[in-house]
From TrEMBL:
Gene Ontology terms for molecular function: hydrolase activity
Summary of the function given for this chain in its UniProt record: Counteracts the endogenous Pycsar antiviral defense system. Phosphodiesterase that enables metal-dependent hydrolysis of host cyclic nucleotide Pycsar defense signals such as cCMP and cUMP.
Record keywords: Hydrolase
Protein name from the UniProt record: Hydrolase
Taxonomy, superkingdom: Bacteria
Pfam entry (one): Lactamase_B
The reaction(s) this protein catalyses: 3',5'-cyclic UMP + H2O = UMP + H(+); 3',5'-cyclic CMP + H2O = CMP + H(+)
Domain Metallo-beta-lactamase: 30-246
Length: 331
């Protein structure tokens, strides 16, 4: 990305919250990083590890009247590299402590043993899903993406659901899994403001991305079921504005959540129609659901398909048969 084309923004949202728009090399576009001028100067997310993102972060902080060196703590909404990639660089410059969900730790640390387990998990998942062997290279590419746009760092304090954010006494932690197993949102009751990361985004529906289980011997998380549950929790809350991880502020969270939940059922209807007279693998269903993008975005599109298969399996609307290590679904 040519930084001459990038105009660093530091938008003041409330007297104590600034939004910094940071460029990323990913299809999702820019990521929103938030600065809270509280008891401790707090940065929510940091952006990916690129020269362009670093320049935008430093210039954005300067526009907000602070420097990287002054940051005292960093809260990660989740472990995806567009949100946490330059964490270690910020830590080294500032000495800030990092706060995140416990499940962010192995991703942030890029723990070698965990990364091997992570790759093996996806290898088995993709084989069971019927992904052709020539496309399994996507696992290596995904691994390289993680190590290219982030570097090993650490979590100093692990956060849990409904606890108060240290040194930000008005802010409450909400565990909002689905998009990732480590996903946290922050809520301030006084002005009904939520910092929502990628949990609630206005212009796109967050992907309920399949990830390895917390217990390495356990079953994989049902991420779309998690995501729907966390969305419903938020729908019951009084929220005036969601400060999203990408795009504009969301001010109609209940209507948006209702629409997203309904789209899930529409997609399950489509899946049932595709299985009306045939038996298909998750990969074959993905090629039919997302014909234009499945090859370019296989991890995301396959996660979407598997999530909706999970919903139908829970409701006993489809059945599964295993043959030669591959799962086939039918009505």
């Amino acid at each position: 990305m040519d930084m001459r084309e990038w105009h660093t923004k530091a938008t003041q949202i409330t007297p104590d919250i600034y939004c910094l728009e940071i460029p990323t090399p990913f299809n999702v576009g820019a990521v929103n990083v938030y600065l809270i001028k509280g008891e401790k100067l707090t940065l929510i997310d940091v952006g990916p590890k690129t020269d362009e993102a670093w320049q935008a972060l430093t210039e954005g902080l300067q526009a907000a009247g602070v420097s990287v060196e002054e940051i005292e703590q960093i809260v990660l909404t989740h472990h995806h590299v567009d949100h946490c990639g330059q964490l270690e660089k910020v830590r080294k410059k500032s000495g800030a402590l990092t706060l995140a969900h416990p499940q962010a730790a192995p991703y942030v640390e890029l723990d070698a043993e965990f990364m091997d387990f992570h790759d093996q998990f996806f290898l088995q998942l993709y084989k069971k899903s019927g992904v052709p062997s020539d496309k399994l290279i996507i696992i290596e590419k995904f691994h390289k993406l993680m190590t290219t746009f982030s570097e090993p760092s650490q979590i100093d304090l692990k956060l849990k659901h409904e606890q108060q954010v240290p040194h930000l006494p008005e802010w409450q932690v909400l565990y909002t899994p689905g998009h990732s197993q480590s996903h946290l949102s922050l809520y301030r009751e006084r002005d009904r403001t939520m910092i929502g990361g990628d949990h609630i985004i206005g212009h796109i529906s967050s992907n309920a991305f399949i990830e390895p289980p917390r217990d390495r011997s356990g079953a994989r998380p049902l991420t779309l079921v998690q995501y729907r549950t966390a969305l419903q929790m938020c729908a019951d809350m009084e929220i005036e504005q969601v400060l999203a991880g990408h795009g504009e502020i969301v001010r109609n969270h209940r209507e948006l959540i209702s629409s997203r939940l309904q789209k899930n059922w529409s997609r399950t209807d489509t899946l049932r129609s595709l299985l009306a007279d045939k038996e298909l693998t998750a990969y074959e269903l993905t090629t039919l659901l997302f014909p234009a993008i499945y090859e370019k975005e296989l991890p995301l599109t396959l996660s979407e398909t598997l999530g909706h298969i999970d919903l139908l399996m829970i409701l006993h609307q489809i059945e599964v048969r295993e043959q030669d290590g591959v799962l086939y679904y039918h009505l």
